[in-house]
Design goal:
The complex is a heterodimer. Chain A is mainly alpha-helical. Chain A has a two-stranded antiparallel sheet. The longest helix of chain A is centred in the N-terminal third of the chain and has 31 residues. By secondary structure, chain B is α/β, with parallel strands linked by helices. Chain B is built from 8 helices and 9 strands. In chain B, the strands form 2 sheets. Chain B has a 6-stranded mixed β-sheet, with helices on both faces. Chain B has a 3-stranded antiparallel β-sheet with strand order 2-1-4, with helices on one face. The longest helix of chain B is centred in the C-terminal third of the chain and has 18 residues. Chain B is globular and about 45 Å long. Chain B starts with a strand and ends with a helix. The mean pLDDT of chain B is 87. Classes of the chains: A mainly alpha, B alpha/beta. At the A-B interface, helix 6 and helix 7 of A face helix 2 of B.
Chain lengths: 286, 233
């Protein structure tokens, strides 16, 4: 029982970080239709930047916030290059994000080296139902809950959030009322950067990150996002939690090295299911 | 208030508008009729800045807002949110009435039917209701000129009559100029004082709507061949 609770809590915590990364994918894809291959980069940049800033003596809280903002700026910069020119084909933007993600490897190695790095955020552990659970897990879960509530309020209640939703819903109509889809696309990239950055600073104390951790992080984030067809942040949350818990159970009861395979298998299964659903709908219409 | 001179718009090598000139005075209701593919929607998209002309000039004193062909709402957002976003380009602040520029209830005075459906998702509405939301959304921009592209398309005559009455009321009470782009020439000529006929990207006829309706060429092409003189004979 103790092990199960321990796996469950750690799975939920990692699932929350996947969901945050996944919601970054969703925020960008909804507005621009671009799958951002550099999404994992935001988490890596923020994780490594937070470690550096803490090492330089910045207090906890401030260091993490600055690191998340750095990831947001990186997101903005990638957005400017990938979607900043009106009329850039979606496929070209996708390839640009892939190229910039690889370029980021060189920049990250130059700044932080090629060794994995981590830092403690909240030390200690608590006992829950016979299991010893790190407090950091609860920090991750709590932060994710707050951010997802804030995201929900942002899209449902604010004028800017509605304008972003409008771009996702009908870009032509958005242009007609004066909303600039290019600006909104760049803004979505910045938001994706902030969300990815938050995932990075939360997950780095749990597992060290290095310049090439982006692939594993992005794979899990994408698998979470694909649950809602890359268009629903709430589905990304559910997807992330399911994925996190399944991976934790597989790691705990089977073998930890199968974690990424679980994510890939789950992602494939969801994509096949969604493709079948679309095909049957098309047949019904025909 | 609107002066278009020798406007040319091209899509690659295809010329959609070829030397179009027209003008609209403040408070006027002007019809633009023509068949499918004549360049009507290209013209209105150029007037509202969505398309850029290759040559010619567009001079506009005031604001233009467009009711696009096919309504083009935000289906996942509520009617009220669709309306609010219509004021996106306007500067923030309040009107003399004390109401916010983004307050959707501003347009309920002109289109009272929208008040009762304000919380509904736009994608769940009937075609007529959607057209009314599209008109309301354009009005949120406080336009001096409202360009309405295919008001009647796919709508029942009784719904079109209601929408037409609202447009006339808007024009008469608020002085908003209206450019009515229509395939339904009879409706356009009934509502407007002056009109233009656009064919293959060129203006082929213009003048008072009453005269256009009596022109055998226009009547045969757009009014089912019913030329008033011939009708009596």
């Amino acid at each position: 029982m103790g092990s199960f609770v321990s796996y469950l809590v750690s799975g939920l915590a990692f699932g929350c970080s996947f969901a945050l990364l996944g919601s970054g994918f969703v925020a960008i894809h909804r507005v621009t239709r671009v799958v951002n291959f550099a999404q994992g980069t935001f988490a890596v940049v923020a994780g490594l930047a937070a470690g550096s800033l803490l090492g330089d003596g910045l207090p906890h809280g401030l260091a993490e916030v600055v690191a998340i903002l750095v990831a947001g700026v990186v997101g903005l910069a990638i957005g400017v290059v990938a979607v900043g020119k009106r009329g850039t084909p979606t496929l070209a933007s996708l390839v640009i994000t892939l190229g910039l993600g690889i370029l980021a490897y060189a920049v990250e190695i130059m700044i932080w080296g090629d060794q994995p790095s981590s830092y403690p955020m909240v030390r200690g552990s608590v006992h829950v139902a016979g299991a010893t659970v790190q407090k950091q897990y609860f920090v991750v879960i709590g932060a994710a809950i707050v951010v997802f509530l804030a995201l929900g309020l942002f899209f449902a209640k604010t004028y800017l959030g509605k304008a972003l939703s409008a771009c996702a819903s009908n870009p032509y109509a958005a242009r007609l009322v004066g909303i600039d889809p290019v600006r909104m696309g760049i803004l979505a990239f910045a938001l994706g950067g902030l969300l990815g950055g938050l995932a990075g600073v939360l997950v780095t104390p749990l597992q060290p990150v290095s310049f090439d951790s982006d692939v594993a992080l992005a794979t899990n984030g994408f698998a979470a996002a694909i649950f809602g067809g890359l268009n629903k942040p709430s589905a990304a949350l559910v997807g992330g939690l399911v994925l996190g818990v399944v991976e934790a159970m597989v790691a705990g009861y089977v073998n930890a090295s199968y974690q990424t395979e679980v994510a890939l298998a789950l992602m494939l299964a969801v994509m096949i299911w969604q493709a079948r659903k679309r095909t049957s709908l098309t047949e019904e219409v025909a | 208030m609107l002066s278009v001179v020798d406007l040319v718009v091209e899509y690659g090598h295809a010329t959609a508008l070829d030397g179009v000139s027209l003008d609209i005075q403040p408070g006027e209701m002007v019809a633009l009729v023509g068949p499918n593919g004549a360049g009507k929607s290209t013209l209105v998209n150029t007037l509202s800045g969505v398309l850029r002309p290759s040559a010619g000039s567009v001079r506009l004193d005031g604001r233009i807002a467009q009711v696009p062909e096919g309504r083009q709402l935000f289906p996942d957002l509520s009617v009220a949110d669709n309306l609010r976003l219509g004021a996106w380009g306007s500067r923030r602040g309040r009107l003399a009435s004390g109401r916010s520029r983004r307050d959707p209830s501003r347009v309920y005075d002109v289109l009272p039917e929208l008040s009762s459906i304000s919380a509904q998702l736009a994608g769940t509405l009937s075609g007529g209701q959607q057209q009314m939301v599209a008109v309301g959304r354009a009005l949120m921009a406080d336009p001096d000129l409202l360009a309405v592209d295919e008001l009647s398309l796919g709508l029942a005559p009784i719904v079109v009559a209601t929408l037409a009455r609202h447009l006339q009321q808007l024009n008469a009470e608020h002085g908003t100029a209206v450019l009515l782009i229509e395939q339904n020439a009879r409706l356009a000529f009934d509502l407007c004082e002056r009109g233009y006929v656009l064919e293959n990207g060129r203006i082929t006829a213009q003048g008072p709507c009453a005269e256009l309706a009596e022109s055998p060429q226009v009547a045969r092409a757009y009014l089912g061949g019913l030329v008033p003189g011939e009708e009596q004979a």
